[in-house]
Amino acid sequence: MKKSIYRFLPVLLVATLAFAGCAKQQVIKKDEPLPTSVTRNETPATSSQVSPPLPSEKNDKAAKGAPTQQQGVGMTQQDLAAQPVKADLEKTLNKVYFNLDSYALDDAARSVLTKNLEILQKDPLRKIRIEGHCDERGSDEYNLALGERRAQAAARYLSALGVAPERLSVISYGKEKPADPGHDEKAWRLNRRDEFIVQ
């Protein structure tokens, strides 16, 4: 009898250990969140620690017009901050006006370009497109060539004052984009101009 007990004792011991080990395991259902445990080296999160924003907070920021990660791709914070400045800069740049059939810069035009230079120096990385315009008189070809010479004259003057030539580009619209659609001297005077577009 004693021999049979000794034979079953190792089997009984193994079965007891196996049952005891299984009893310590927790069963986690599929839908339940995993339990969090804190080891000796970890410290529990406190209320003073910053947690990442919840998805609803991100949506609120996007709805309020804050730049999202997607909107800011490839742009630095400085680029984002400078965006509204472009429109303000363009509004402050004054037009240059020309006499009939002329691309010469008179004293008034030079004065305007000097003031424009001061504005351009505040944002030395911005590029400017100078658009040359003409009044409705003359052929399309003549006015396109005259508009080009007017834009070039302003670009050369600004370059001589210190604006880097690579910041300036020119284009002629000839008589295609009148500032005033009238057909009198007042309208023609307003249409013979250079405009400065911030890029």
Secondary structure layout:
Layout: H1 2-24, H2 55-63, H3 77-92, E1 96-97, H4 107-121, E2 128-133, H5 140-161, E3 168-174, H6 185-191, E4 193-198
Keywords:
single chain, about 200 residues, 60s Ribosomal Protein L30, Chain: A, four-stranded mixed beta sheet
Oligomeric state of the chains? Answer: single chain
What is the CATH-assigned architecture of the domain at 96-198?
Answer: 2-Layer Sandwich
Mean pLDDT: 76
Output the strand order for the largest sheet: 1-4-2-3
Individual helix count? 6
Can you offer a commentary on this structure?
This protein has 199 residues and is an alpha+beta fold. It has a domain at 96-198: OmpA-like domain (60s Ribosomal Protein L30, Chain: A), CATH 3.30.1330.60. It is 46% helix and 11% strand. The protein has six helices and four strands, in the order αααβαβαβαβ. It has helices at 2-24, 55-63, 77-92, 107-121, 140-161, 185-191, and strands at residues 96-97, 128-133, 168-174, 193-198. It has a four-stranded mixed β-sheet. Helix 4 crosses helix 5. The chain starts with a helix and ends with a strand. Residues 32-73 have low confidence and may be disordered.
